[in-house]
Design brief:
The chain has helices spanning 14-35, 93-104, 143-155; strands at 51-52, 70-71, 76-79, 84-86, 108-109, 129-134, 165-170. The chain is α+β, with helices and mostly antiparallel strands and 189 residues long.
Length: 189
């Protein structure tokens, strides 16, 4: 008859092993957060508006609607929610003046959505802005079409998927809205 010898080491139970693993995992997680809290954040590479052919960047064969050169556009994210981007020097002062001149010719007072019981006469003088919609086909100089192409390149959304340009002139220092918001230079307030 054989006699079983008793082990001098006590057996670790499953709960103790699970608890130990969980403890060391949590301790490691918090320790790594302490050591790497000053890690530098990666900033997105700036994109430039000009088409560039830098040494080291070779363009590859492109499709029928593609471009033969590598391009980049500088921008700054002003807000993620709602999404707002700033493109410095996106349009020149001359381009802006051409568009403003074209829009001024067709400005009309903004209309109101009347509530039940309201009439046009009772809301006269309520609107403080004038606006117009213009499309690139109305621009004989081609400036608006050129700007729309730049917008398409910056947003990666084809020009055909865009909308007509909205011009809104706010009067009496009220806020304006629209793609190209501007103030009348004659209004010094």
């Amino acid at each position: 008859m054989r006699i079983k010898a008793k082990s001098s080491r006590p057996k670790l139970g499953l709960p103790i092993v699970v608890f130990s693993c969980l403890f060391f995992f949590i301790a490691g997680f918090f320790a790594s957060a302490i050591f790497f809290q000053d890690a530098p954040t990666v900033k997105p590479r700036l994109r430039l508006l000009e088409v560039v052919n830098e040494e080291g960047h070779k363009s590859i064969p492109h499709g029928e609607s593609g471009e033969d050169a590598i391009g980049s556009i500088p921008f700054q994210v002003l807000s993620w929610k709602p999404r707002a981007l700033y493109f410095p020097n996106f349009a020149t002062a001359e381009e802006c003046q051409i568009i403003v001149k074209m829009a001024k010719a067709s400005l009309k007072p903004s209309s109101l959505a009347l509530r039940k019981g309201e009439t046009i006469e009772s809301t006269k003088g309520t609107r403080t802005s004038s606006g117009t919609f213009i499309s690139a086909s109305e621009d004989k100089t081609g400036t608006l079409g050129y700007i729309e192409e730049k917008i398409a390149r910056a947003t990666m959304i084809p020009r055909a998927h865009g909308e007509t340009c909205t011009m809104d002139l706010g009067l009496h220092c009220h806020r304006t809205s629209g793609l190209f918001a501007w103030r009348d230079a004659g209004d010094a307030r």
